[in-house]
Amino acid sequence: MEIRSLDHVNLYTPDPDGLAAWYVEVLGLAIGWRPPFGIGGHWIYAGDRPIIHLVEVAEAPRNIEPGIEHFALSATGLPELQSRLDARGIAYSIDPVVGLDVVQVNLRDPQGNHIHVDFDLAEVGRARG
């Protein structure tokens, strides 16, 4: 057996439509097909892969220990992401990873989930900030 990659992240939310819209509008992902599970939610796609599964719950989940501190996405187009974040007033930081040719854009979704979007370090020269 060999684990080759992370398949998806599952997030509970009382507002699957609103959270799905945020991932579409801010990160440029897409809402796609989801099996009829009998509970509300959405699958959010990057290309042809459903990488974020949103599951409707009655109330906002509270952070519990142990928990997932963040999830990360790999991307291209750092200047475009910065423009989207700036236009919406979303706080973020751009943080190079020492020893890797990677820069992380750290941000939080509307529920407070920590996300970092990873870009090749070469994209920093094309970005603001």
List keywords for this structure.
4-stranded mixed beta sheet, 129 residues, Glyas_Fos-R_dOase_dom, single chain, 2,3-Dihydroxybiphenyl 1,2-Dioxygenase, domain 1, alpha/beta
Structural category is: alpha/beta
How much beta, percentage-wise?
Answer: 25-35%
- Which blocks of ≥5 consecutive residues have pLDDT under 50? none
Q: The CATH topology of the largest domain, please? A: 2,3-Dihydroxybiphenyl 1,2-Dioxygenase, domain 1
Task: Please state the second-level CATH architecture of the largest domain.
Answer: Roll
The CATH class of the largest domain: Alpha Beta
Strand order of the largest sheet: 1-4-3-2
Termini separation comes to: 43 Å
Overall form: globular
Rg measurement, Å? 15 Å
* Count of separate structural domains: 2
Series of secondary-structure elements, N-terminal to C-terminal = EHEEEEHEEE
Number of strands: 8
State the fourth-level CATH superfamily of the largest domain. Answer: 2,3-Dihydroxybiphenyl 1,2-Dioxygenase, domain 1
Mean pLDDT: 90
Major β-sheet profile = 4 strands, mixed
Number of discrete helical segments: 2
Helix content: 10-25%
